[in-house]
Amino acid sequence: MLKVLLIPALDDSNIELIKKSCPDMNLLKVNKEDLTQEMIDEADVIVGNPPRQFNLNRPTLKALLLNSAGNDQFLLPNILNRQTLLTNASGSYGHAICEHMMGMILSFNKNLRFYYDRQKEARWTPLFTGREIYGSNVLLLGVGDIGTEFAKVLKVLGANVTGLRNSYKEHPNCDEIITSKELHDVLPKMDYIITSLPATNATFHMLSHDEFSLMKEDAVVCNVGRGSVIDTYALLEALDNKSIGGALLDVFDEEPLPADSPLWKNPRVMITPHCSGGYHWKSVQDYYTQLVIGNLNHLKNQEPLENLVNRTKGY
Predict the structure, then answer these.
(1) Looking at residues 152-165, what average pLDDT do you find?
(2) Within 10 A of 32 (CB to CB), how many other CB atoms are there?
(3) What phi and psi, each to the nearest 5 degrees, are found at residue 305?
(4) Which of 26, 122, 126, 229 has its CA 20 to 30 A from that of 171?
């Protein structure tokens, strides 16, 4: 019987659903603050992201089923035994993250921040400025779970959507698919560049000085993936030179973002504190619960796991 340690703060209904769907497993639900090394050592499978102070490098740990879409910290040397299977929660966060960033884009486009400030002062001052998603050209850096959700919504709003991925495989919600080889060719015509890419050697500073120099003066850069994809110094330079229109950021290469970062006070930047895919969202919990149930049963039946991380590629 598999001994399964459940760490994520799932609501009671989802915990009960996991127990009901995996009746022949020994399931232990524990809060992170109550977690001990002994519990880690006794588990065959860990569901969730254990705090980094615990030793996970054991050949008896069959699998670690992360509750995060990102998995880079668990790929560092000596964190996991090579025999331990690692899965991420890709597919759980796309809906929530898409809603969040679309809210930022619409707020930026329609000057909603400024109208809210005027509301507090009882000022009736229409700006008659702004921009539309309709008819715009949008580049999605990454068309996995998160990028796919963006593509669906953007098409409904009338955008022309280009997706960047590792191959030229067609995507049902993208008008065009490119690879990184064509990135510089398409950047000059893009109104929005939205990145949801993971942190890998290949994606590090994918958007830097050369890329920003190719963008339109009113292009808006959005990041809900990993902060390392954008070269912050190059972004600041592009904003200062007004060579791009703005930046909507939920992730940063240093978190929390330092209080003295110039990004905080730039009027063409919107910042949220890495909260777009918060684990408190019902959609995230429901999607993740189904993923966990599927993978626990795959382990029991010795079947391939969903969202298995390729340690060479990093995702």
Answers:
(1) 99
(2) 12
(3) -90, 150
(4) 229
- Token digits for 217? 């003066």
145 in Cβ contact with 199 (< 8 Å): no
pLDDT higher than threshold 90 for residue 227: yes
pLDDT band at 267 (very low <50, low <70, confident <90, very high): very high
DSSP secondary structure string for all residues of 206-230: SBSHHHHHHS-TT-EEEE-S-GGGB
- The structure tokens listed for 155 are 């098409």
Provide the domain limits for residue 18: 3-88+282-300
Whether 312 is covered by a domain: the verdict is no
Residue 315 lies in a domain: no
| Number of domains the chain is built from | 2
Q: How far apart are CA 71 and CA 162, in angstroms?
A: 26
Structure tokens at 195: 């990145």
Q: Which two tokens stand for residue 20?
A: 């009901």
List for the chain the helix, strand, coil content (%; round to 5): 35, 15, 50
Same domain? For 180 and 223 the reply is yes
On whether the CB atoms of residues 184 and 208 are closer than 8 A, the answer is no
- Give dist(CA 149, CA 54) in Å, integer: 35
> Average per-residue pLDDT in the chain?
97
Residue 279, pLDDT above cutoff 90: no
